[in-house]
Amino acid sequence: MTGSDNPTWVAGPDYLVAGRYRLRSKLGGGGMGTVWLAHDKTLDRDVAIKQVFSTAGLDIEEAQQLRESAMREGRNAARLSNPHTVSMYDVTLDRGEPWLVMEYLPSCSLAQVLGMTGTLPTDQVAQIGAQVADAMAEAHAGGILHRDIKPGNILIADRGKLAGTVKISDFGISRANGEFVAGDDTMITGTPAYIAPEVARGYDPSEASEVFSLGAALYAALEGQPPFGIDDDAESMMDKAARGEIVPPQHTGPLTDVLLRMLEPDPKRRPTMTVARGALAATIPGAGGSLEYVLNSPLRASDGRIPVWVRRASAGGRRAGVPGGTVGGLPPAPQSVPLDRVPRPQGSGEPLPLWRTTAPVPPRKAASPWERIPLISEIPRDKLVPAAVLAVALIIIVVMIVIMV
Ligand SMILES: Nc1ncnc2c1ncn2[C@@H]1O[C@H](COP(=O)(O)OP(=O)(O)OP(=O)(O)O)[C@@H](O)[C@H]1O
Ligand SMILES: [Mg+2]
Questions:
Q1: Could you read off the pLDDT of 350-383 as tens digits, one per residue?
Q2: Which residues make Cβ contacts (< 8 Å) with residue 395, sequence separation at least 6?
Q3: For the Protein kinase domain, which residue ranges apply (predicted)?
Q4: Which atom of ligand 1 has the smallest separation from the CA of 31?
């Protein structure tokens, strides 16, 4: 017996969720369900709605626990009202399945942006970080953890009055999912590429582990890959996270100091979200040290306009292949990896060393347009003669034009 009315049924466009929310179109989908643009009939407004928790395959008791967990996390998230948090409006049941109803933010996620641009300038990354840290500082003050801070959950408004404003979404969702799926407390929630070392080693998430995850997301936005590098295998990624061995950053510029502090393997040595927020904002030269300006202004390029990457993302310039809220090239990693399937590093449980790094990565080479012109040695032998004839003909035409002029 399962807790779901019909485990194989999948909602589609025009479906009316809980008699109130009419599904319009898909906004995207990550590791935990599809996000829909929907219309709230009662309040006559657009909302984003997501069925992240499926009771399919669970027995009645487990299904009920899942519903309660979803409701609890939804209620927690609904207590937050920061300008940099995607508001949670409602948690509702439809056919026995919990759906989350959120503020609709016309936006692109940082993961989508990075899939397109690879990296972002330091001042824009600092402002993204300060705005997310502001939301998180408020959540931490209220005793609420996010549990899955990563580029896929950082949204940047790309249209309308809020264009250029940064908001964090999906508060508590991985907990509601992860804590239940295992049926016990040996689940790790979060995304391996952005997880703090102590969480990868089985300790509970904390305010400090969220500072690490935010640092990891900002590191990825500057370096083009997360601090532990890219690995197809989630378990091996968890192993690297557990060891706390980050790849030394090469492109973090003025953010190097604050990011290294946020990525400290020892959670006790990391700054709080509030301190990180101030330190990130202080690195932005144009802001003149004003935290208020950094938090209240939308992201801007040096010409004062909304950055071109935001406009390109909204114009549909997204590159395919960044599912699951990961940065470009990184495969989607599961939200929850059972602790007993994660290989334990040697000495697990012992205090982590303060700083351990892997071999330095070679500096990136700037791509030059000349590199795209093939050398004669690269032209296939059978194309050499036609290429030479073409070149001679071109030279003759140019010489004749010069003589005639
Ligand atoms: N509140 C929202 N308003 C508008 N668009 C949203 C909203 N929430 C999510 N989206 C869009 O839906 C996409 C998918 O979000 P989703 O949370 O499902 O994926 P993810 O964060 O990449 O993965 P995960 O399932 O692990 O959270 C986002 O990248 C974003 O473009
Ligand atoms: Mg998400």
A1: 333 323 223 333 333 333 333 333 344 445 555 6
A2: none
A3: 21-284
A4: 25
